[in-house]
Amino acid sequence: MKYHSHIENLDEDGYTQLDFSTRDIHKRPMISDKGSRAPSSPWRPIAVGLGILCFVAVVVAAVLGALGVFSRPCLPNWIMHAKSCYLFSFSGKSWYGSKRHCSQLGAHLLKIDDSKEFEFIESQTSSHHINSFWIGLSRNQSEGPWFWEDGSAFSPNSFQVRNTAPQESLLHNCVWIHGSEVYNQICNTSSYSICEKEL
Ligand code: MG
After folding, report:
1. 117 alpha carbon – ligand 1 mean position (Å)
2. Which pLDDT score, from 0 to 100, does residue 167 have?
3. DSSP, residue by residue, the chain
4. 74 and 80 in contact (C-beta within 8 Å)?
5. What is the pTM of this model?
6. What digits encode the pLDDT tens for the residues 133-183?
7. Is the pLDDT confidence value at 4 over 80?
8. How far is the CA of 97 from the centre of ligand 1 (A)?
9. Which residues surround ligand 1, an ion (CB under 5 A)?
10. Gap from CA of 114 to ligand 1 centroid (Å)
């Protein structure tokens, strides 16, 4: 309603007459709840499409992350081959020190399981042919059987352990690889080493 106080509304006594008529009031058109009268934005379908794409991308990333697709199988500086990660350590240590070092990294000194693994190791050590690398093969006594760190017996299928002692030695009870050859050696000798960690 609208209040009118024009001069024409004055009565004979000079008092203003109030006019509560609704003559100037125009009803606004009702807009439906759905806003059907509002012009539809051309960006709406684009925004909805982008939202769906983002949602799908998040779901795909979550699934791939759960499957370990984005995770690195080996730590930095480790080399992945077949089902293991290998660390070629270039710090000189005794065989026992090297064993301890690998253990501290959650690994063990290299165990060569088959000829394919030996070929891979050989390809690596041959590029460092002036250096020797301790592997996880040792024996308790001279001329005794060789054992891997996990207690399994050595089988000379992939390589032979060459003797470096000029004569019978009670000390050459540890094994290193030098280039493509494998030798027994005095365990306290300082050398590089190879750690292995199964995936
Ligand atoms: Mg192995």
Report:
1. 7
2. 67
3. ---B--GGGB-TTSPBPPB---TT--PPPP--TT-TTSPPPTHHHHHHHHHHHHHHHHHHHHHHHHTTSSS-SS-TT-EEETTEEEEEEEEEE-HHHHHHHHHHTT-EE----SHHHHHHHHHHHGGGTT-EEEEEEE-SSTTSPPEETTSPBP-TTS---B---SS--SS--EEEEETTEEEEE-TTS-EEEEEEEE-
4. yes
5. 0.66
6. 999 999 998 888 999 999 999 999 899 999 887 666 678 999 999 999 999
7. no
8. 20
9. 111, 113
10. 8
Between residues 7 and 102, which one has the greater pLDDT?
102
Centroid of ligand 1 to alpha carbon of 30 (angstroms):
80
The Å distance, Cα 187 to ligand 1 centre, comes to 21
pLDDT of 51: 84
**C-alpha of residue 130 to centroid of ligand 1, in Å:** 23
- Whether residue 97 is predicted with pLDDT greater than 90 in this model: the reply is yes
In angstroms, rounded to a whole number, what is the distance separating the alpha carbons of residues 35 and 179? 80
Distance 110 CA to ligand 1 centre (A): 6
Q: What is the mean pLDDT of the chain?
A: 82
Among residues 195, 178, 175, the alpha carbon closest in space to that of 79 is found at 195
Secondary structure of residue 57 in the 3-state scheme: helix
